[in-house]
Design brief:
Layout: H1 2-15, H2 22-40, H3 44-47, H4 54-58, H5 60-94
Helix pairs in contact: 2-5
Length: 95
């Protein structure tokens, strides 16, 4: 419950919207889980740079690319939503 509250507060501050329920909430939680898994996992290339090629075979590089693409798409949606809201607010205030 505390984790859910923290997530809601951070999302409201950063995105002006909660991402705790519905389809978007499940997608957001899944992305955060994958990100935390990558951040907390062991990456050979971080400790022994000349062995970073191992990440190609164990799938770490592919997973990093996938998570980065998902977050880019998510943040693009958030920006587009903010732009639409700003345009609507400016049209309402001027008209």
């Amino acid at each position: 419950m505390f984790s859910l509250l923290t997530n809601d507060v951070i999302c409201r501050a950063a995105f002006r919207r909660k991402y705790s329920g519905g389809e978007s909430g499940r997608k957001f939680k899944k992305m955060l889980g994958e990100l935390m898994e990558l951040l907390g996992g062991f990456n050979v290339g971080d400790f022994i740079p000349w062995l970073s090629w191992v990440n190609l075979f164990n799938g770490v590089d592919a997973k990093v690319e996938k998570v980065a693409k998902e977050f880019d798409e998510f943040l693009d949606e958030v920006v587009e939503e903010h732009l639409r809201e700003s345009e609507l607010a400016s049209k309402l205030s001027s008209g």
